[in-house]
């Protein structure tokens, strides 16, 4: 056996670390930072399937791609977002620049194995470790070799959707359409849409982001139609800091500005939950005010659900509303009958003319990056498991899951759970435990099972029977509350009655 540059024990196509992190996006970087800070000297490796770090932000490349959360909460707690322009909305490039700055500042890139696709992960109870089978690309060619990794601890930081394919429904007569049909997840770099008529199918965050960008600049489309089955709640929000957070930033620094946006987001969520009818009217009236009564049709802007039953679509500086008001884009609420040679036939309208059709129809849920996970060679039945404190699963040893909030920035929750996982590893290393796992109550004290994600969004509903569940009480409930999670993960002892430690 030999030792590699990161101190790992190596053999013939077998590499051993203390910790393996699967995924090199925001979650993986957070896990790596907290491990490095909390457990100095621990040997870890980030296994990233792509050529670059960044995850979602490296994958997607459609026009106008930006954050739908403010960057003061989307940025890491240990490295606050800083913008000379006081912008709070990050573009793809500024987000990647920020992430790469963090990686460089904390010297994390030396821990990354790029183009390493994890195929299987198996827990061996006898050895007390995880064994991962991977396919690694060699140099710049397409040849691959199988490499086996072993580690006591495993972090899944792969996100929650399929990087290979987005969700596209079966559209009748699809082949009849003569132009390109594009899903935003696979945006062609050389797409020419200048002076073209475009139909965007969908009304979620992707469509709301795309449409203003498609109608601007030298390459602008002649007209864009947003075709939706039902409306989404949308709201104007400033893209730059307003006077209150700007003053807090000036007098008290980055942390004060970050806390302002944390509390503002929590306030908006809970007021929507407490007064859904009033907030529904507020958002709908806001749209009419933005686009003008002549462009406003109530059926196009009145969702069928309560505010925050699905994520709210933010429109920085009202850019989407300005595009509708200008006449460069329009909204049609209808159902698709079929594609035709020249566009999309709907039930209530004539054919919507199109040179290009964009299917902004959502994501395909794929937890753990499609990795086959087994426990002593027995497949892990994901839907039968419960999520513990948002970062572990019952009876799955030394396995940590990165999952963010549905009602706030992804990174807020990631920062808390990855720090908690690192603290847990420090406890185990100090007290010489071999593994730990949360365990369900004994028979006779069965818990109520409820879906782990309580949104009504299509991509969640399509996959609710494929993902782990939650219950109704702590520590098996996902509270979607940053203050509560901060207290329970950072100030309460991690050594509770539910988490069992084994030597």
TrEMBL record:
Its EC number is 1.4.3.-. This is Amine oxidase. It holds the Pfam family FMO-like. Its cofactor is FAD. The keyword NADP applies. GO terms for molecular function: flavin adenine dinucleotide binding; N,N-dimethylaniline monooxygenase activity; NADP binding. Keywords: FAD, Flavoprotein, Monooxygenase, NADP, Oxidoreductase. It comes from the Eukaryota. Belongs to the flavin monoamine oxidase family. FAD binds at residue 27. Signal peptide: none annotated. The keyword Oxidoreductase applies. It comes from Seminavis robusta. InterPro entries: FAD-binding_MO (IPR051820), FAD/NAD-bd_sf (IPR036188), Flavin_amine_oxidase (IPR001613), Flavin_mOase-like (IPR020946).
């Amino acid at each position: 056996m030999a030792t590699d540059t990161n101190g790992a024990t190596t053999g013939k196509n077998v590499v051993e670390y203390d910790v393996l992190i699967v995924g090199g996006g925001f979650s993986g970087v957070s896990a790596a930072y907290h491990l490095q800070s909390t457990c100095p000297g621990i040997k870890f490796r980030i296994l990233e399937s792509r050529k670059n770090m960044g995850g979602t932000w490296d994958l997607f490349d459609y026009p106008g791609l930006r954050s739908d959360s403010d960057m003061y909460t989307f940025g890491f707690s240990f490295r606050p977002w800083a913008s000379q322009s006081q912008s709070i909305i990050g573009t793809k490039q500024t987000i990647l620049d920020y992430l790469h700055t963090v990686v460089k500042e904390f010297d994390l890139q030396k821990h990354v194995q790029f183009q390493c696709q994890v195929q299987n992960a198996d827990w061996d109870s006898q050895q007390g470790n995880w064994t991962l089978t991977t396919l690694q690309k060699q140099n710049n060619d397409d040849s691959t070799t199988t490499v086996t990794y072993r580690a006591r601890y495993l972090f899944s930081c792969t996100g929650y959707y399929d990087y290979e394919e987005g969700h596209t429904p079966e559209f009748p007569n699809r082949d009849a359409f003569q132009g390109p049909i594009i899903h935003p997840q696979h945006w062609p770099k050389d797409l020419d849409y200048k002076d073209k008529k475009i139909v965007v199918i969908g009304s979620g965050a992707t469509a709301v982001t795309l449409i203003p960008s498609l109608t601007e600049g030298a390459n602008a489309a002649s007209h864009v139609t947003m075709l939706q089955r039902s409306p989404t709640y949308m709201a104007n929000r400033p893209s730059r800091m307003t006077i209150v957070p700007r003053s807090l930033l000036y007098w008290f620094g980055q942390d004060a500005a970050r806390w302002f946006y944390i509390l503002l987001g929590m306030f908006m969520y809970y007021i929507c939950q407490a007064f859904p009818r009033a907030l529904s009217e507020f958002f709908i009236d806001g749209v009419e005010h933005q686009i003008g009564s002549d462009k406003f049709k109530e059926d196009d802007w009145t969702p069928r659900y309560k505010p925050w039953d699905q994520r709210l679509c933010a429109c920085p500086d009202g850019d989407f509303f300005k595009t509708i008001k200008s006449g460069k884009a329009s909204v049609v609420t209808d159902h698709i009958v079929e594609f035709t040679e020249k566009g999309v036939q709907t039930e209530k309208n004539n054919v919507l003319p199109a040179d290009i059709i964009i299917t902004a129809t959502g994501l395909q849920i794929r937890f753990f990056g499609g990795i086959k996970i087994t426990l002593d060679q027995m497949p892990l039945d994901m839907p039968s498991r419960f999520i513990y404190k948002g970062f572990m699963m019952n009876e799955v040893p030394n396995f940590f899951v990165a999952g963010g909030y549905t009602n706030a920035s992804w990174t807020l929750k990631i920062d808390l759970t990855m720090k908690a996982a690192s603290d847990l590893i420090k406890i185990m290393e100090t007290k010489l435990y071999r593994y730990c796992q949360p365990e369900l109550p004994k028979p006779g004290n069965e818990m109520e099972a409820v879906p782990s994600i309580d949104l009504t969004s299509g991509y969640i509903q399509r996959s609710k029977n494929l993902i782990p569940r939650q219950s109704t009480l702590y520590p098996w409930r996902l509270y979607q509350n940053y203050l509560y999670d901060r207290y329970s993960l950072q100030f309460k002892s991690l050594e509770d009655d539910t988490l069992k430690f084994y030597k």
